[in-house]
Write a structure and sequence with these properties.
The protein has 276 residues and is of the alpha+beta class. Helices cover 13% and strands 30% of the residues.
Length: 276
Amino acid sequence: ELSSLLPQGISLVSKTSCFIHKTTRIVGGAQVHKAKDGSWVVSIQKGNTHWCGGSLIREEWVLTDQQCFSSCVPDLSEYSVQVGLLHLNSSLDHPRLRIAHVVCGPEGSNLALLKLAKPAPLSEHAFTIQLPVAGCRVTDGTNCLMYGWGETKGTGYEGALKAVSLPMVSNDWCSELHDKTLPVTDSKVCAGGRKDQGVCERDYGGPLVCQERESKVIVGVSIHGRGCALARRPAIFVNVAYYSGWIHKVFIHYSRLEEKLLEEAQTKPLHSGLYH
């Protein structure tokens, strides 16, 4: 179990806390006090091959890196999402969920929301991760966990879900360490900077998760083209709190759209083409 092997984030937060504390979480009417660590990490697959990481933020929504897809209107027939995986070569039967829509984030965000064709079945091994409070910042020096199936320096790619503890780094210092060659705006956060600990191939789209007491939130999404676990080169992530408002607007839009379609379906006569 990941949580027994890996360090936990420490609770240093900014004045605007990113965390909302909940006493219990509900799955199918039963109380789940603690989902397994990493249970929110999903494998986005192309064909039968792991393509990118992602995070289950609602039963029917996955947050990931937009660059995992060739466009905002890709052919989704070859893509699927698997939840509850601790190893990509697992012999256990994990649900393969079809993607109904890709919703690209605001221009320059690198984010994409994936609307699943049906909600993911939740369990202690497949659960949602909480979104941060909009506009919050986690204090520099806070240790947070980056999750992925990527390469382990020195041992290569193993296919096992891993997590590494990375300290949060201020955007100004992060920009300095990258020789100001990469723009580190408020829409980004940085973490890491230790050699052989960071984001590598197959990690893209995966989450950076911070913790305060029992509350865990996704504060970052790993993105392409930022190097692979280099010394004094912190990884640059999409700042999820910066886009929390947009994410909730997408939720509301699709919820209203589904309600409208349901109302139309209920008022259509049975011989309507809707049923053919």
